[in-house]
Amino acid sequence: MFKKVTLVVLAALLLFAVPVGAQSSGAGQNQLILLQKTKQMYHNGKLYLAAQPLTELKGTTYISATAIAGRLGATVQYDASKKEYILRDATRELRYAVNKSSYTVNGTRMTFTGTPFVQNGSLMIPLRSVLSPFGITLSSIPAEKKLVLKWTIKPIAKFTVSPSVIYAGQTEVTYADQSSQPSGAAIVNERWEGKQTMFAEAGTYKVTKWVQDANGVWSDPYSVMVNVLPQNMPPEARFATDKSYYKMGELIQYNDISSDDENKITKREWTNNAKAFFEPGEQTVTLKVTDSHGLTSEFSQNVTITSESLYTKQEFDQLYTDQGEKFTIDGASVLKLPTQPYTVVNTGQQTFIRSNSPEMINDEGIYYQDTASGNVRFLIHNQNNRPNPVKVYIVATNENSTAATVTDERIGLGGPAPYVTQAGKAATANYLLSRTTNPVGTVTTIPAGQSRVVLSPLSSKEVVNGRILTMYADVTTSAPIKFSVIVVDASKDVLQALPQLPILPRDGKHVRGTFENANRSINVLQTIGDVPSRMILADKVVDTRLSGYDVLTGEAMSNDGNNGAMYVLNLWHVKPHTLIALNPRGGHYGGAFLINNKLVYATNTTILSNANEAGVLYRTGDTEEAVTIAFTPASGSNLPINLLFLPLPELQQ
């Protein structure tokens, strides 16, 4: 018998192409010859040197852990938290502790003769500790002072099953092979037990795989437990109405009572579920529901409309169109409504900088630049026409002799978006929402004579070709600051590029410039809602536009559309049961409004297309109300707009 052996940590594993008489013992077989009291190891005929010589102490043979690990295709690591050394390959984990005569193999505690120790920085372990876990046989040739280790490197079978949720008789199961052979030999064959592409019955199934390599060696079995759920039932579409017969123009209430065995209905599609019908006869309403697995169900029900009328379509729309939705109106008749007189009061010092020209981004450069102080508002609205992605910056330059600050107060971004109304509506809504919360409060300190980027959410957006970016934002400054609106390719550093950037000319069509007194307060003291009426906003006559200058050219500018002007309308006496609606007079309009500090879109899912549509903003209740409406005209939309004040029809039974 030979003496028991140990492994060392941190072997040098130096490879020498020195052939010896000992060769591998057959296909898929490995042979390792160890020479006692030396560092020499002959692995399948090639010489390797261990970090420490094979050592015998008190009848136990020790070997460098990293040396034997390298021959077995394993690694050695140190777990500092447990003070253990880990010898690991794809399927085995052996844990050793210095001076302890036990170790674990894949979590099972084992004992051996001898104890691991560290010799000249290398962990030495009992050689016999690796024999059984790795399937190694050992023989001794005492006359030649040799130990001969033989083992077979098996391929490793492994696979995954998908999808993670499997239903009996419904789910097609796929198996992704992850088998391997540590020696590099090809996998040439496989064998399965329990594999099915579809399981007919619910239950737990064991699926096992073996693989064979090119050397003819089979792997150990690898198994996965597959949980198959009972067959998934399709959803059941169902709805009910509050009654079976309705008058023309009578509100129909639909109660969706669809169900699903997993409560995972992901889509509901209605057909002909109008809130009311205005012709007598039978109407078929259909609901289709889809669950998370794509199974569907449809349900239809007939509704009978009598020849008796409750409301006309116009009356019904005014009463029941949801807030933020639109209804059809006779645009020509709107112009016949009496107008509500009002007086605009400019409140507070508010400098407004609008950079919208050139609107199309064709060149890098400075799009607008001016010095402002105190309360400053920005409107940026541009479309990228360059092939490269760009970023838009607002750079603040402090030309004072002492440091100054710029504080971000409010910001509303829209886009980058493919449509101008989409970007403009989103920016308007986000800006108005920012006015309902605490100020952003981001303070940028700018040393004397230096520049900094402010309103960084703007420049965080990369704008690709064809996309539109819109921003409304407010800042405050502690001193006069020169603000530059700059566009450069997204890959560039704007502050490094700034000294070389040209000031770009206007496009001759859109607006840029600096305007003062950009906050507008309107107080209406007279009663509203006693008769149908309208209020004209953002036109050139009744609601005059802000006047200013393009300071880069000295040209006088009119703020067309008054985009960026902040309106606050205080309607102090609005009659009960009054509809307040928005009617666009210049074309399409997509924006947002704060009604009593609640955000309302015009409209929720689309835009107002023309003057023959109106969007519902608010309805008063049973008593007179004071209503506050705050907004800024939306970029990308057409002006002017009219606010309509329409007495609601009396409720009928």
What can you tell me about this protein's structure?
- Helices cover 7% and strands 45% of the residues.
- With 653 residues, it is mainly β.
- β8 and β9 form a beta hairpin.
- The chain contains 7 helices and 51 strands.
- The strands form 11 sheets. Strands 30, 31, 33, 35, 36, 38, 40, 43 and 44 form a 9-stranded mixed β-sheet that branches. The protein has a 6-stranded antiparallel β-sheet with strand order 1-4-3-2-15-14.
Highlighted features:
653 residues, mainly beta, 9-stranded mixed β-sheet, disordered N terminus
> Roughly how much helix do the residues carry, as a percent range?
under 10%
Which structural category do the helix and sheet elements fall into?
mainly beta
User: Taking Cα atoms only, what radius of gyration do you get, to the nearest Å?
Assistant: 40 Å
Unreliable sequence segments:
1-26
Number of separate helices: 7
Q: What's the overall geometry? A: flat
Give the beta-strand count.
Answer: 51
Instruction: Report how far the terminal alpha carbons are from each other.
Output: 107 Å
Overall residue-averaged pLDDT value: 92
Biggest sheet: strands, sense, closure? 9 strands, mixed
How large is the share of residues in beta strands? over 45%
How do you describe this structure in short?
This protein has 653 residues and is mostly beta strands.
Write the layout of secondary structure elements.
Elements: E1 14-16, E2 29-35, E3 40-43, E4 46-49, E5 55-57, E6 60-64, H1 65-71, E7 75-79, E8 84-88, E9 93-96, E10 102-105, E11 108-111, E12 117-119, E13 122-126, H2 131-134, E14 137-141, E15 146-152, E16 159-162, E17 166-167, E18 174-177, E19 187-193, E20 203-213, E21 222-229, E22 239-241, E23 245-248, E24 254-256, E25 265-271, E26 281-291, E27 296-309, H3 313-320, E28 326-328, H4 331-334, E29 344-346, E30 351-355, E31 360-361, E32 365-372, E33 375-384, E34 390-397, E35 404-417, H5 420-434, E36 442-446, E37 451-454, H6 456-459, E38 468-477, E39 481-489, H7 494-497, E40 512-515, E41 519-524, E42 533-537, E43 547-550, E44 555-558, E45 566-574, E46 578-584, E47 591-595, E48 598-602, E49 613-619, E50 625-631, E51 641-647
Parallel strand pairs: 17-21, 23-27, 30-33, 31-33, 41-45
Antiparallel strand pairs: 1-4, 2-3, 2-15, 3-4, 5-6, 6-13, 7-8, 8-9, 9-10, 10-11, 12-13, 14-15, 16-18, 19-20, 20-21, 22-24, 25-26, 26-27, 28-49, 29-41, 30-40, 32-39, 33-38, 34-37, 34-39, 35-36, 35-38, 40-43, 42-51, 43-44, 45-50, 46-49, 46-51, 47-48, 47-50
